[in-house]
Amino acid sequence: MQKQSMWSFRFSTSALVLIPTAVGINYIGKLFAGLLKLPLWLDSIGTVLASMLAGPIIGALAGAINNIIYGLTLDPISFVYAISSIAIGLAVGILFYKGLISSWSQAAVAGLIVGLVATVVSTPINVGFWGGQTGNVWGDALYAIILAKTDSIWLASFLDELVVDVPDKLMVVLISYGIFRGLPQNVVHLYDNNHKLETLD
């Protein structure tokens, strides 16, 4: 068996069908967090799971499409954060492809890394569109405190995003990894062709 490039666009039907499933999981997660007014978003579980199963490109597509659909139906703000969802899908896909999400401890570390990636990507969007705030009550409370003490919108916005994104992505990656581990092997094997190619020599 020879590993296929993680950037290959040779997708199986099962990988393409996974995209709407991942979008649905993301959508439900965000609605659930919103209804319970959790200090988390939980809107990337499908993206992360798709990246683990089918690679970074499928994960990134699932994340972007989720933001577009959510933006059209419930919250127009979601459109601009498609970039963040793409970054999340790519980051998880790369880490998983490299074998860096193969235990609970590695999944926890990956969650912290993905949270930092999402923070770095989202902070300029927050500053450009919303004056630096995230719209999360917990993060925005910290934003107000930091801004009052430092007068730095960028620092306040970065910390605002950080205190929400890191725990959110830590939880999301752990939940997704738990789902992945619980999947039947015959389901996981449906996606093997996205990572490996048979050789005849």
Q: How does this model look, in words?
A:
With 201 residues, this protein is mainly α. The protein has a domain at 12-123 and 167-194: Arp2/3 complex 21 kDa subunit ARPC3, CATH 1.10.1760. The protein contains eight helices and two strands; from the N terminus they run E-H-H-H-H-H-H-H-H-E. The protein has a two-stranded antiparallel ribbon. Helix 5 runs antiparallel to helix 7 (153-182). The longest helix has 30 residues, at 153-182. Residues 193-201 have low confidence and may be disordered. Keywords: Membrane, Transmembrane, Transmembrane helix. This is ECF transporter S component.
Percent of residues in helical segments? over 70%
Using the coordinates above, name the CATH class of the domain at 12-123 and 167-194. Answer: Mainly Alpha
- Gross morphology is globular
CATH-scheme architecture of the domain at 12-123 and 167-194: Orthogonal Bundle
Q: Please count the helical segments.
A: 8
What kind of sheet is the major sheet?
2 strands, antiparallel
Strand order of the largest sheet: 1-2
Alpha carbon gap, first and last residue: 10 Å
How many distinct beta strands? 2
| CATH topology (level 3) name of the domain at 12-123 and 167-194 | Arp2/3 complex 21 kDa subunit ARPC3
Low-pLDDT regions: 193-201
